[in-house]
Write a structure and sequence with these properties.
The chain folds into 2 domains: about 190 residues, 2-enoyl-CoA Hydratase, Chain A, domain 1 (Alpha-Beta Complex), CATH 3.90.226; about 55 residues, Lyase 2-enoyl-coa Hydratase, Chain  A, domain 2 (Orthogonal Bundle). Helices cover about 45% and strands about 15% of the residues. The chain has 11 helices and 10 strands. The strands form 2 sheets. The chain has a 6-stranded mixed sheet with strand order 1-2-3-5-7-10, sandwiched between helices. The chain is globular, with a radius of gyration of 19 Å. The structure holds coenzyme A (COA). The site of coenzyme A has 16 residues, from strand 6. Coenzyme A (COA) binds next to strand 6.
Length: about 260
C-alpha cells in the first residue's frame, strides 16, 4: 500500500516503519506522500488508537531529508519543499490519537524534526540526534528551529543548531528531547507499553490533551485559531462534559470500579 513505509496493526497501535534502510531512511518526496497518507489512515481508521513511527534497520531512524533531491532546486522549489514537510509534520503533531517516535539510531536533520513532530519520543541507547543542516549551508526546514527550541530551550537550541553537533541518547534524555532510553531490543516494547496505558484512558480526553498542549507551544495564530491555550482549555474541559466517557469515568470512580471507555 505504501512504497516507502511498512505498517502493521498490533493491539490497536499502528507501527509505521520508514523503509529505505539502504539510504538510512532519508526522507524523499515519496516518503512525505506516504507519511501524509498514513496520517490520514491514523485519523480515519477507528481500529487505530495510536501509532509508533520508527525506522527500518539497526542503524537509523531517519538520517535526514534526502540530500540527493537538493542539488537542482531553486528558492521557490525549496520553499515548497519546506512547506510540504511542515504540513505533513503538522498533520502528525495534530493527530488526536497519540503518535510516538521510537528512535532506533540516527535521527538527523529531517529525522530529528520528524521525531520532534511526534507527541513524544523514546529512543534506543545507540540513538544519535542532530540538526546538521549548517554543514550543508542550510537550516532546518521542517519545523526544527521551532520545535527544538520548544523542547530543549533557546540557548541549547541555538548552540545545537549552530554547531551542528550530534548528541547521544543520554544527552537527549538529559535535555528532555526524549522521555526514555532503552536497549535496542526493548525499544518497540517500551513504546507499545506506553501506548497500551494510554489506550485505557478516555480517547476524546486524550485528543483534547494533545490539542491544548499543542496550543501551549505554538504561537502561529492560524494554528491556534486565534485562541490562547487557556481559552481552549476551558472549552475543551467543557466539551468533555458532553462525552459519554466523562459520565462513565465519574460514575466508575463513585462506584469504585474500572471505567469502560467507548471513545464517545
Ligand atoms: N540523504 C540522502 N542519502 C543519505 C542521507 C541523506 N540525508 N543519509 C545517508 N544517505 C545515504 C548515503 O548516501 C549512503 O548511500 P550510498 O550507499 O548509495 O552511498 C547510505 O545512505 C549510507 O550512508 P553512509 O553515509 O554511507 O553511512 P555512514 O555510516 O558512513 O554515515 C551518517 C552515517 C548518518 C553519519 C551519514 O550518512 C550522514 O551524515 N548523512 C547525512 C546527515 C545529514 O546531513 N542530514 C541532514 C540532511 S538536511
Amino acid at each position: 500500500m505504501y512504497s516507502t513505509l511498512l505498517t502493521s496493526l498490533e493491539n490497536n497501535t499502528l507501527i509505521v516503519t520508514i523503509n529505505r534502510p539502504d539510504k538510512l531512511n532519508a526522507l524523499n518526496a515519496q516518503v512525505f506522500t506516504d507519511l501524509d497518507a498514513v496520517a490520514d489512515e491514523i485519523y480515519a481508521n477507528p481500529e487505530i488508537k495510536s501509532a509508533i513511527i520508527t525506522g527500518a534497520g539497526a542503524k537509523a531512524f531517519v538520517a535526514g531529508a534526502d540530500i540527493s533531491e537538493f542539488s537542482s532546486m531553486n528558492k521557490e522549489q525549496a520553499m515548497a519543499m519546506a512547506k510540504r514537510g511542515q504540513d505533513v509534520f503538522f498533520k502528525i503533531e495534530n493527530s488526536r490519537k497519540p503518535i510516538i517516535a521510537a528512535v532506533n539510531g540516527f535521527a538527523l536533520g529531517g529525522g530529528c524534526e520528524l521525531a520532534m513532530a511526534c507527541h513524544f519520543r523514546v529512543c534506543s541507547d545507540n540513538a544519535k540526534f542532530g540538526q546538521p543542516e549548517v554543514n550543508l549551508g542550510l537550516i532546518p526546514g521542517y519545523g526544527g528551529t521551532q520545535r527544538l527550541t520548544q523542547l530543549i530551550g533557546k540557548g541549547k537550541s541555538m548552540e545545537f543548531q549552530m554547531t551542528a553537533q550530534t548528541i547521544d541518547a543520554a544527552e537527549a534524555l538529559r535535555l528532555n528531547l526524549v522521555n526514555y532510553v532503552t536497549a535496542p531490543d526493548k525499544l518497540l516494547e517500551t513504546a507499545k507499553a506506553l501506548l497500551q496505558t494510554i489506550h485505557t484512558k478516555a480517547p476524546v480526553a486524550i485528543g483534547k490533551i494533545i490539542e491544548c498542549i499543542n496550543v501551549a507551544i505554538v504561537s502561529d495564530s492560524a494554528y491556534t485559531n486565534g485562541k490562547s491555550g487557556y481559552d481552549r482549555e476551558i472549552e475543551c474541559f467543557g466539551e468533555c462534559f458532553e462525552t459519554k466517557d466523562m459520565r462513565e469515568g465519574a460514575a466508575a470512580f463513585m462506584e469504585k470500579r474500572k471505567a469502560n471507555f467507548i471513545g464517545e
